[in-house]
Design brief:
Largest sheet: 4 strands, mixed
Helix content: 10-25%
Distance between the termini: 36 Å
Number of helices: 2
Strand content: 25-35%
Number of strands: 8
Shape: globular
Length: 117
């Protein structure tokens, strides 16, 4: 038996808008651009992807699941993501070697520092 990770589903008030934001942030391609079901992937034939679907409930608390990214240059990447429309987020993390940001709909994600070792 095998199990392949296909995608992460993200509820969104505006699936297309949020999906396009993440496609730009990650440099991924759009593989489905329906207004209520917008999917992006690293490449058309590469998994996993992110699938943005219309959510009916507003975000009211910290995400139970979030994405972590490890760029070559954390500070440069944080600056780039802020320029794209991300914002700093406080989820009670205090002083840490990573930066917590939120996408345009408030979904938190972390930008990690350089890998040690």
């Amino acid at each position: 038996m095998t199990l392949e990770w296909e995608q992460v589903i993200v509820d969104a008030a505006d699936p297309e808008g949020l999906g396009r934001w993440w496609a730009g942030a990650l440099g991924w391609v759009v593989v489905n651009d329906e207004p209520d079901e917008f999917e992006i992937r690293p490449a058309p034939d590469r998994l996993p992807g992110l699938l943005f679907v219309r959510g009916t409930l507003p975000k009211t608390e910290k995400n139970r699941l979030h994405l972590d990214f490890r760029p070559d240059d954390r500070n440069a990447e944080v600056g780039r993501l802020l320029a794209l429309g991300a914002r700093h987020a406080d989820i009670g993390q205090g002083e840490q070697p990573w930066v917590v940001l939120a996408d345009p709909e408030g979904n938190e994600f972390c930008v990690l520092g350089a890998r040690r070792g």
